[in-house]
Amino acid sequence: MSGIWRISFESPLASKGHQSVSSSAARRKRTSSCLKRATHLRILFRSKLKGEQAVTFFTGIFAFQLWTVLPCIVIGYLLGNIQTAVIVSRAYYHDDVRNHGSGNAGSTNMVRVYGYGPGAITFAGDSIKALLGVLAGQLLCGQVGGYLAGFFVVVGHCWPMFLGFRGGKGVASSYAIAILSFPLGALAAIAIGGAILLINKKMSIMSLAAMLLFFIATLVFQLHNLPLIVLAGLLTIVVFVRHAENIQRLIHGEEQRLRKEGM
Predict the structure, then answer these.
(1) What confidence tens digit (pLDDT) does each residue in 151-160 have?
(2) Are strands 51-56 and 3-10 parallel, antiparallel or unpaired?
(3) Which sign does the torsion angle of CA 184, 187, 231, 138 carry?
(4) Are 178 and 235 spatial neighbours (Cβ–Cβ below 8 Å)?
(5) Buried b / exposed e across 237-260, counting CB within 10 Å, b at 16+?
(6) Which residues contact 253 (CB under 8 A, 6 or more apart)?
(7) DSSP of 96-165, one letter per residue?
(8) Mind listing the pLDDT tens digit for each residue in 78-126?
(9) pLDDT at 16 > cutoff 90
(10) Cα–Cα–Cα angle for 21, 23, 24, rounded to 5 degrees
(11) Are 173 and 129 in contact (CB under 8 A)?
(12) Which of 26, 151, 174, 225 has the fewest CB within 10 Å, making it most exposed?
């Protein structure tokens, strides 16, 4: 059945015209400032056979004013541009880690090039900036704002504007966001990923497995929390995209194990 999709916005006051003034006032008090001017996103499908039908879709998720969500996006992206690996390698080794190893500004490449100590510092720094992004987003726009800011921390980390869009793969930052958003699911996924790492010594498999398991955990145990499911799905997609070369090497049996160069 062919048709044409059309998106329209309907004011919640228009669809709830028979509600009392007192009820509306009480609801407004419970609503966060981000949702005061919310609109219901409705998708209308026009079919030759059935005519025009309206289906409510993602009510409230996209119900933000641009001026409200833009700071979350900007703050998250700018925090993501802070590349711990580049800062540490330039400060202590007078070099750029991106010129060595895999060319990525991440903790795994830091381990390969400089050792486990610098790698751990990088992992901690990338995790902290993600936590700060989520907290800043929550202060500005509640839970969804935190998710949005956290996601753009990962985007900024992977594609930093101020460093030629050459960043890391977003794993440490994604782990931190996952733990803050759904602790039990994230810790379980990371633990299973860690067990996989102990067996095959390949960090890429751990990263991919942990993020995929986290996404599955949100689908199973957080089905009511649609924003979290969307966040987990987007983070997983970004991590998989950034590991495209690793996936190719895994397929061909050429992926290296985690170790310092020369060991």
Answers:
(1) 999 999 999 9
(2) unpaired
(3) positive
(4) yes
(5) ebbbebbeebeeebeeeebeebee
(6) none
(7) -GGGSTTS--SHHHHHHHH-HHHHHHHHHHHHHHHHHHHHHHHHHHHHHHHHHHHHHHHHHHHS-GGGTT
(8) 999 999 999 999 999 999 999 998 899 999 999 999 999 999 999 999 9
(9) no
(10) 65
(11) yes
(12) 26
Cβ–Cβ < 8 Å for 260, 115:
yes
Give the start-to-end residue ranges of the domains of the chain: 3-56, 66-251
User: Rounded to an integer, what distance in angstroms lies between the CA atom of residue 207 and that of residue 171?
Assistant: 7
Does residue 47 carry a pLDDT above 60?
Answer: no
Q: What is the Cα–Cα distance from 178 to 189, expressed in whole angstroms? A: 10
Strand order in the sheet with 40-47: 3-10, 40-47, 51-56
Residues in the chain: 263
Tokens of 128: 């902290």
Closest by alpha carbon to 42, among 63, 65, 61, 59?
A: 59
